Amino acid sequence: MRIGILGTGTLATALAEGWARAGHEVAVGGRSQAKTRNLADRLGRGVRAVEPREAVRDRDAVLLAVSSDAVEDMLGLADAPDGSLEGTPLIDPTNSVEHGVGVLLTERGESTAERIAGLAPGAHVVKAFHLFAAQQWVRGPGGDEPPVTVAMCGDDPAALGVVGELVRAVGGAPAVLGSLDRARQLEEVAGFVIGLAFAGVDPRSAVPHVPSPNTPSRSPSASV
Ligand SMILES: NC(=O)c1ccc[n+]([C@@H]2O[C@H](COP(=O)([O-])OP(=O)(O)OC[C@H]3O[C@@H](n4cnc5c(N)ncnc54)[C@H](OP(=O)(O)O)[C@@H]3O)[C@@H](O)[C@H]2O)c1
Predict the structure, then answer these.
(1) Does the C-beta of 106 come closer than 6 Å to ligand 1?
(2) Is 35 in the pocket of ligand 1 (CB under 6 A)?
(3) Ligand 1: which of 8, 39, 63, 67 to mutate, most ligand atoms within 8 Å of CB?
(4) For residue 15, what are the CA distances in angstroms to 7, 36, 93?
(5) Residue 169, exposed/middle/buried by CB under 10 A (0-12, 13-18, 19+)?
(6) Per CATH, domain 2-206 is 3.40.50.720
(7) Of these four, 63, 89, 146, 194, which has the most CB atoms within 10 Å of its CB?
(8) Which residue puts its alpha carbon closest to atom 33 of ligand 1?
C-alpha cells in the first residue's frame, strides 16, 4: 500500500519502520523538513520525506501521528480542510490524556476522532493504534506472544478493512468496536490502559484478545 504519515515523532517513526519492513511504501510529512529528512534517512528503504500536503496525495491510508492539540495545525498543512483527504482512510491514533495518569482532557461527550472528521471533510476516519506504546509496532508479526488487539472504530467498512490490514502488517489483531460515534469510548479506554501501564500492569492484559482462527469461540468475532 501507499501510506502517508503526518508527523515525525515516536509513533510516526515506529509505524513507518513497521510498515516499510512489511513492504509498504511510506511518505512522511512533518512540519519540520529537517526532522522529516532525518527520519527518512534513518529508516532508509521504503520511506520518503515529503511536505505534509504531498504525504496525503494518492495514498491508500494516512496516519495522523501528532499531539492531540496539533491535529488542526497539521491537517491545515495537509490542506485537509480543502478536501485533500476526501475518500482516504485517515487513522487517528491520538490520545488527549494527562501524561502518567491517563485522565481524558477532551470535553464531556466529545471525541478527538470526531473532531478530526470535522476538520478533514470527506476523510474516512478510523480510530486505531492509540492503546499501545509505539515500540510494540517495531517488533513486527510473529514471535511467541499472541498478537495484541487493536480496538478500532470508524464509519466506512472499506477503510476499516484497509486499517485492519495495516494492523496485521505490524503484528496486531484488528477488532472493530463499532462506528465513529464509539470513538469517545475508545479514547476513554486509552486512559484506563495508560493508567494501568504506568502502575506497572502489562497493558496487553487490559484489552481482550482476538481468538485465533483455529480457536473455537462462543461469541461473535469483531475482527475484520
Ligand atoms: N508514542 C507512543 O507510544 C504513542 C502510542 C499511542 C498513541 N500515541 C499518540 O500518537 C500521537 C503522536 O505521539 P508521539 O509519541 O509520536 O508524539 P511525539 O513524539 O511528541 O511527536 C509529536 C509530533 O507532533 C508534531 N507536532 C507538534 N505540534 C505540532 C503542530 N502545532 N503542528 C504540526 N505538527 C506538530 C511534532 O512535530 P515537531 O517534532 O516538529 O515538534 C511531532 O512530529 C499523540 O497523539 C500520542 O498521544 C503515541
Answers:
(1) no
(2) yes
(3) 67
(4) 11, 14, 11
(5) buried
(6) yes
(7) 63
(8) 74
Tell me the three state secondary structure of residue 51.
coil
Q: How many CA atoms lie within 13 A of 103 on its CB side?
A: 4
The 10 Å Cβ neighbour count of residue 199 is 10
Q: Which residues make beta-bridge pairs with 150?
A: 174
Query: What would the mean pLDDT of 25-45 be, rounded to a whole number?
Result: 97
Report whether residue 34 contacts ligand 1, using a CB cutoff of 6 Å.
no
Burial of 44-67, coded b for 16+ CB within 10 Å and e otherwise, reads eebbbbbbbbebbbebbbbbbbbe
Ligand 1 centre to CA of 57 (Å) is: 21
Residue 25 φ/ψ, nearest 5 degrees = -100, 125
Grid coordinates representing 111 are 471525541
Q: Over the stretch 144-191, which tens digit does the pLDDT of each residue have?
A: 888 999 999 999 999 999 999 999 999 999 999 999 999 999 999 998
SS (H, E, C) 95-145: CCECCCCCCECCCCCCCHHHHHHHHCCCCEEEECCCCCCHHHHCCCCCCCC
